[in-house]
Amino acid sequence: MDTEDWLADVRTSYDTVAVNYAAQVRDALADDPYMRAALASFAEIIQVAGGGPVADVGCGPGHVTAHLHAHGVDSFGIDLSPMMIDLARRTHPGLRFDVGSMTDLRLEDGSLGGLLAWWSLVNVPDHAIPGIFNHFKRTLRPHAPLLLGFHAGSGSQCKTQGYGHPMNVQVHRRQPAQVTAWLHHAGFTVEAHLALDPDSDRPAAILFAR
What we know:
Number of strands: 9
CATH class: Alpha Beta
Distance between the termini: 31 Å
Shape: globular
Number of domains: 1
Number of helices: 6
Order of helices and strands: HHEHEHEEHEEEHEE
CATH topology: Rossmann fold
Strand order of the largest sheet: 3-2-1-4-5-9-8
Radius of gyration: 16 Å
Largest sheet: 7 strands, mixed
């Protein structure tokens, strides 16, 4: 499957589920102190590093973008789905949201004080990850922080139903060691690794890098 095929499937699927997805994740952070702590740490690291614009890449309906903004971060969101961006703009009218793809970030070199990919790599195939991390590296200032959150584990499966609607996306689980290796190859140094629910059937991981 080439880039345009999987991107088109992801875009169509999230356009379809946008309203229900937004309703489901709206209060997700309120119920998860560990994710809130990770985002608060990220906000502090950004401020210590000198601030600057921070991209929430794959922002969905913008709830994490808004959460970071409430912590004093100059955050803006980018998402592949026009419907998600429309919802984000209407829900958070004071913030910036743009339609765009992490495979071709239309951002200037060294323009970001930080970048977040919060469970937005889940539908990206392995072969596309190195190029995406190269885009992240290109757009970040030297020593600016990167925060990744993702499903931990191994294997992929096709998701044909979600949030009350049909979908057609691959869901990828990845070992933190593999993601770390991709980051190292792109020129990042991983500074911290947080394991979430490691004993559950839905483990997750958060990586802090520069």
